[in-house]
From TrEMBL:
<keyword id="KW-0808">Transferase</keyword>
<keyword id="KW-0663">Pyridoxal phosphate</keyword>
<dbReference type="InterPro" id="IPR015422">
    <property type="entry name" value="PyrdxlP-dep_Trfase_small"/>
</dbReference>
<keyword id="KW-0411">Iron-sulfur</keyword>
<keyword id="KW-0479">Metal-binding</keyword>
<dbReference type="Pfam" id="PF00266">
    <property type="entry name" value="Aminotran_5"/>
</dbReference>
<keyword id="KW-0408">Iron</keyword>
<dbReference type="InterPro" id="IPR000192">
    <property type="entry name" value="Aminotrans_V_dom"/>
</dbReference>
<dbReference type="InterPro" id="IPR016454">
    <property type="entry name" value="Cysteine_dSase"/>
</dbReference>
<protein>
    <recommendedName>
        <fullName>cysteine desulfurase</fullName>
        <ecNumber>2.8.1.7</ecNumber>
    </recommendedName>
</protein>
<dbReference type="GO" id="GO:0031071">
    <property type="term" value="F:cysteine desulfurase activity"/>
</dbReference>
<dbReference type="GO" id="GO:0046872">
    <property type="term" value="F:metal ion binding"/>
</dbReference>
<dbReference type="InterPro" id="IPR015424">
    <property type="entry name" value="PyrdxlP-dep_Trfase"/>
</dbReference>
<comment type="similarity">
    <text>Belongs to the class-V pyridoxal-phosphate-dependent aminotransferase family. NifS/IscS subfamily.</text>
</comment>
<dbReference type="InterPro" id="IPR015421">
    <property type="entry name" value="PyrdxlP-dep_Trfase_major"/>
</dbReference>
<feature type="domain" description="Aminotransferase class V">
    <location>
        <begin position="4"/>
        <end position="365"/>
    </location>
</feature>
<dbReference type="InterPro" id="IPR020578">
    <property type="entry name" value="Aminotrans_V_PyrdxlP_BS"/>
</dbReference>
Length: 380
């Protein structure tokens, strides 16, 4: 039985060209980028080239790219770093109730440190109201952090409108763009974004590497202490092989963006059509017309998420109940709870299917047929 991977929002298979690029670095370029001799200069050149590639992918300056160990560290650095550096201006932060736990748990920590955090509500379509941001702003607001694309529903937030709103306010604007990068065109200048988070393993790159875009005007405290790497914003010898792999993954993602979007959207539509043809009772959670091509979150009335995931796995289907960080948890999805309320059935019967490089039209059809068969059996 073919194992079919439908959990690309959690992580993606690494591209063969990425592996080749990383192997070459590990084999031939072992110098420390901070060293002044020829070995170090060779490593520094690769580091600088990668930084420039990543900066161009979001229309930023290479001086504004800070390499991190991934999305979680980048979110922590953006939120805690700016909160501590700007506390004299105020202690109020705005975010949403449906953020990734890398943001929510960071906010909870800041609340323990005396910061006031406003958690904006989410509509049933999975989007926030920009007017809610406006109403929440005060003279003490120093940071607004709103994810670009929700990791469970795939719903796109009105980031550009929020950026416009904040143009005349002191608050910095951070967005976790981990799920958006590679599928949505990002221009940090046009969108009024001050900080932006990206992770390589979501775009067929290696795990353990990401970056934080930090506009040069942002006052940011470092959270690590050591050397002067990353313009003193993130100490520690850079993960050069991971960074070069990240660069290659970004190059591939940018080259094939429109093709991949069309392909993934066709997978999503085919998957849903087969469920319909099989007479499956289901609802798509969130505004499907305002979601990225690769992700769909589906509620199956009369089922429970634990039974669904167990049976899917037994039938060779890899899917998720939401964030990879909470996979296996019996707790209701905090994202769907924010959208529909605590008592709503969909918070405990919904599955996220996310499509990508590991899929073909054939295995999407096969996966949908298996899912339909399982749901029919469980609903009886």
């Amino acid at each position: 039985m073919e194992q079919i991977y439908l959990d690309h929002a959690a992580t993606t298979p690494i591209h063969s060209e990425v592996l080749d690029a990383m192997y070459t670095v590990e084999k031939d370029v072992f110098g420390n980028p901070s060293s002044v001799h020829s070995f170090g200069r060779k490593a520094r050149r690769l580091l600088d080239e990668a930084r420039l590639t990543l900066a161009r992918s979001i229309h930023a300056s290479e001086k504004e790219i800070v390499f991190t160990s991934g999305g979680t560290e980048a979110d922590n650095l953006a939120i805690i770093g700016t909160a501590l550096a700007n506390r004299q201006k105020g202690n109020h932060i705005i975010t949403t109730a449906q953020e990734h736990h890398a943001v929510l748990h960071t906010m909870e920590r800041l609340e323990q440190e005396g910061f006031e955090v406003t958690y904006l509500p989410v509509n049933q379509d999975g989007r926030i109201n920009v007017e809610d941001v406006n109403q929440a702003l005060t003279d003490a607001t120093i940071l607004v952090s709103i994810m670009y694309v929700n990791n469970e529903t795939g719903v796109i937030q009105p980031i550009e409108k929020v950026g416009e709103l904040l143009q005349k306010h002191q608050a910095y604007f951070h967005t976790d763009a981990v799920q958006a990068f590679g599928l949505i065109d990002l221009d940090v200048t046009k969108m009024g974004i001050d900080m932006l988070t990206v992770s390589a393993h979501k775009i067929n790159g290696p795990k353990g590497i990401g970056f934080l875009y930090v506009n040069e005007k942002v006052k940011l405290n470092s959270l690590q202490f050591g050397g002067e790497q990353e313009r003193k914003r993130r100490a520690g010898t850079e993960n050069l092989a991971g960074i070069v792999g990240f660069q290659k993954a970004v190059e591939l993602a940018m080259e094939n963006k429109s093709i991949r979007k069309e392909r993934y959207l066709s997978y999503k539509q085919a998957f849903l059509n087969i469920l319909k043809k099989n007479g499956i009772d289901f609802e798509v959670n969130g505004a499907i017309e305002a979601s990225i091509a690769s992700t769909v979150n589906i509620s199956f009335p009369g089922t429970k998420v634990e039974a669904l995931l167990t049976n899917f796995d037994l039938e060779g289907i890899a899917a998720s109940s939401g964030s990879a960080c909470t996979a296996g948890s019996v707790e209701p999805s905090h994202v769907l709870t924010a959208m529909f309320g605590k008592a709503h059935e969909c918070t405990t019967n919904s599955i996220r299917f996310s499509f990508g490089q590991a899929n073909t039209p054939e295995n999407i059809k096969e996966a949908a047929e298996r899912v339909a068969k399982i749901v029919k059996r469980l609903v009886k």
